[in-house]
Amino acid sequence: MLRAACLAVLLLPGLDAVDSPMVNAPLAWKPTQQLAESVGAINLLPFDGVRIAVLPFTDLRKDKSLVGENLEGTTGKLVTTRDDAAAFLTERTRMLLRSAGLPLTDTVEGATVTVTAEVLNFKVTERNTYLGEVSLRVAIHARGQELWRGTLLGSATRWGRSYKLENYHEALCDSLIQAVANGLKSESFLKALSGKPPAP
Parallel, antiparallel, or unpaired: how do β-strands 113-127 and 77-80 relate? Predict the structure, then answer.
């Protein structure tokens, strides 16, 4: 009878694995959109002879493990990770820039342009919908000169079953894609990536 009672409790609605705390969940790349959908084709002629190095990002967030929070109930439910979010964002940003056709190099030696970034926000807030937000403070240098500095912002909204890890992953990834897309749609950002100084 005790086993039957325990089984009945486990099968009650709302008490499945989805509702269990998502602690130390690994980060995963699960976007629902493509960078090209937001950016389109980029003129690559200015990048002839250019080699861009994206240096490891620095995470400035207060809680580096926190990547999501469900605020639908009276008690918030968190989503945390043991993964290095800054490293994840670095690698995925490199991947996105390469997918846009930009000439990236894996080593600083020989690079003509370097990109650094600080992670200010990387989180999903769930209130009926999933709202992902990414904020990167970026600087671009060439020949010892800072050519561009600014903050790339990206956000994404997802519908889905409450407190589901896959939806958190999708919102985070789509937000990063939008942040990078916003940079690539900026003429001054692209000019700096090509190593050209800003207009006087």
Answer: unpaired
Based on its alpha-carbon atoms, the radius of gyration of the chain, rounded to whole angstroms, reads: 20
Dihedral (CA of 182, 184, 186, 189) sign: positive
Q: Name the pTM for this structure.
A: 0.89
* Digit-coded pLDDT (tens) for 82-110: 999 999 999 999 999 999 999 999 999 99
Contact call for residues 173 and 30 (beta carbons, < 8 A) = yes
Asked whether 127 and 77 are in contact (CB, 8 A), the reply is no
Q: Per CATH, is 19-27+47-193 categorized as 1.10.10.10? A: no
Give the pair of three-digit tokens for residue 114: 């370097």
110-119 pLDDT per residue, tens: 999 999 999 9
By three-state DSSP, how is residue 150 classified?
strand
**In terms of DSSP bridges, do strands 66-70 and 77-80 run parallel, antiparallel, or are they unpaired?**
antiparallel
